[in-house]
Automatic annotation (TrEMBL), chains A, B:
It holds the Pfam family ADH_N_2. The keyword ATP-binding does not apply. This is NADPH-dependent curcumin reductase CurA. Residues 22-342 form the Enoyl reductase (ER) domain. Keywords: Oxidoreductase. It comes from Roseateles oligotrophus.
Amino acid sequence: MSQDKTLNRQILLASRPQGEPSSQNFILREQQLPTAAELAEGQVLIRNHFLSLDPYMRGRMNDGKSYAAPQPLGEVMLGGTAGEVVASRNANFTVGDKVVGMGGWQEYFLVDATQRGVLQKVDTTHIPLSAYLGAVGMPGVTAWYGLVKIINPKAGETVVVSAASGAVGSVVGQLAKARGARAVGLAGGADKCRYVVEELGFDACIDYKQHPDLRSLSAALKAACPDGIDGHFENVGGMILDAVMLRANAFSRVAMCGMISGYNGEPIPLAAPQLILSNRMKVEGFIVSEHMDVWPEALKELGGLVASGKLKFRESVAQGIAAAPEAFLGLLKGRNFGKQLVKLV
Amino acid sequence: MSQDKTLNRQILLASRPQGEPSSQNFILREQQLPTAAELAEGQVLIRNHFLSLDPYMRGRMNDGKSYAAPQPLGEVMLGGTAGEVVASRNANFTVGDKVVGMGGWQEYFLVDATQRGVLQKVDTTHIPLSAYLGAVGMPGVTAWYGLVKIINPKAGETVVVSAASGAVGSVVGQLAKARGARAVGLAGGADKCRYVVEELGFDACIDYKQHPDLRSLSAALKAACPDGIDGHFENVGGMILDAVMLRANAFSRVAMCGMISGYNGEPIPLAAPQLILSNRMKVEGFIVSEHMDVWPEALKELGGLVASGKLKFRESVAQGIAAAPEAFLGLLKGRNFGKQLVKLV
């Protein structure tokens, strides 16, 4: 980069949403970056190429008890990024290196890379850079953990996943298929369902928008899962989880990964928890960042599958940092189709 | 026994309850028993001394899908019994042997004891016969499985159990204490709570009848569990489970053993299943009869603790087979105090 001052555009959390968030909760700020010569020893400056938008961010916008600290007001929104080193005073990173990290909703990421784990170099020879924010990143490992460590499907079992065309759900179903299980998705709309079956290779996909009540959705699940449901990967919650539980087999496992239907504070009671007992189910919530021990194994499988073209994924790409808030609000409403990214270059 | 014909009084299921069961659902029948000389090869005739009444029996009175076959209409109610061999044409059993089995709601139990596992000889030198239906029987192993295999408390953790003065709950808390955990019970009434703390040695017990709403019960749990709840053994469900979940710690475990609050078909929704995710909880249902592999280990610990007086229990004893239906209806309403038995001799 030149020695001229460069502007870094950032999105900050301006206020906490009451219920459904809006673009008013965010604000764009421009900040001057240091020049290469001004970097402190150990620092690396990255130009972010892609910003990852993920449902978990909605939870962090709230104040109050949760598994993660709230996103601070007036600070850059947290988020995963993939980019290229443009200046470095750190022996481990060279200009041109492709890296991923928690760079936040901004165009440039200035970080002290002497802290272990804050920046990972990635190889883009066989895997596109953006995939490190999706199938070969946090969403992929999330899918892997819930499927492998909680659901652990046997060949011939049936695995259901909600938000099946999304960054996590699409990987869950493909990993289930790779293990010989029947994969059934739930997605919103005929296009997404067609993609889930025809492109991702799921055995069936139910358009939940065609099933506005529990009875109808349960009947659709019965048709798609003639042998019942042995494993369920939950990204949505609410009526979808109720309907799945009505079709759950004895000793079935539910990996609770997300409850996006309740992220704005709506009550989402579970109608019949007694089914957990009568079906001897295991229902387990998890946060993938608390299971760092499995990441190498998971990334090895996921990276291999993506590099060989066996694991497919799709991206919704918004353009420019200013578009991030609207893209995020759309993600919460299911308007994305596949992994939601913001392209910053 | 004499060669005279002996009458065997039995309680049959006459009709399936619609909602709350009543004495009208049962009928008493008298049947003639064979004489000792009339036994077939391999058969054993037992005089039942005690009949065990347990909440699971309510579920079996219903028709429809469950983990166990429904109790057939017009047949002797199923149930565990402890008694004494009064006639035998089986080399493994001798008149005078004390035995336990699924003898049913009747005074005598005629069984082909060549079938493996239908009849177990028990030693009453240090353990009273009735305890084999409680703390050293199915309820005890139920407590042991849920506590040891699902909750698995570490020293210093807090374990909560509902129906804490009952056959299962009383053992859960004492086993938790033996493992260095804090044990907090929920029970109905001051007498039961006093017993749970003063006799059984729990650290605290909450009289749920004093807390008719979620807010009040949750506040009582907060006071009794200042460090939150790490493990919960659920016998009741409904508002109790909701209140416990509001105080659940990260990585807490819920063993779902019974949902007696919903046994008559009332809806018992779980208010906030998203807590399973945000607290990374594990909620697991189980049926102890599906884990026969752990029975020897569990019974060894339970028998040792009862024989040495370290594991305390209490019994509610109804007298005579004709009293069984009313005693069972009382059990479902929590009128028992400790293990509910019917004494038949």
